[in-house]
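Weekly sync, protein design subgroup
Attendees: M.S., D.O., the rotation student, P.L. (late)

Item 1: inverse folding check
M.S. brought a backbone from last month's batch and wanted to see whether the design step gives back something sensible before we order anything. D.O. pointed out we never logged the input encoding, so this time it goes straight into the notes. Structure tokens as presented (97 positions):
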């Protein structure tokens, strides 16, 4: 049986303290699928790259619904750490679906 596992981990703030700071996430993939040459893969991606991916999926999905991404809110109430963790969980859920 083919199995693919994807994990969104290790959020890191890049350029912290500057006007162009952002958070990126480690995306880890492990599979035994014959469709993949590499059985494990690890990259870092930021939220806007998930937005791009979702747009590409929507463009090619036809009538298949594409999962939502977690919101991009500049007005989050709570700590930055809480926001980053909620977003990480939302991105994890997006990739799993």
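Designed sequence read out in the meeting:
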């Amino acid at each position: 049986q083919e199995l693919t596992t994807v994990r969104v981990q290790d959020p890191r703030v890049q350029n912290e303290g500057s006007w162009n700071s952002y958070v990126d996430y480690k995306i880890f993939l492990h599979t035994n699928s014959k469709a993949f040459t590499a059985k494990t893969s690890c990259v870092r991606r930021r939220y806007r790259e998930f937005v791009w991916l979702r747009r590409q999926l929507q463009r090619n999905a036809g009538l298949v619904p594409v999962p939502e991404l977690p919101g991009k809110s500049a007005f989050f109430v709570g700590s930055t750490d809480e926001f980053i963790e909620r977003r990480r969980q939302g991105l994890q859920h997006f990739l799993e679906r």
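Discussion: The chain has one domain: 2-94. The chain has a mean pLDDT of 89.
Action: P.L. to compare against the previous round before Friday.
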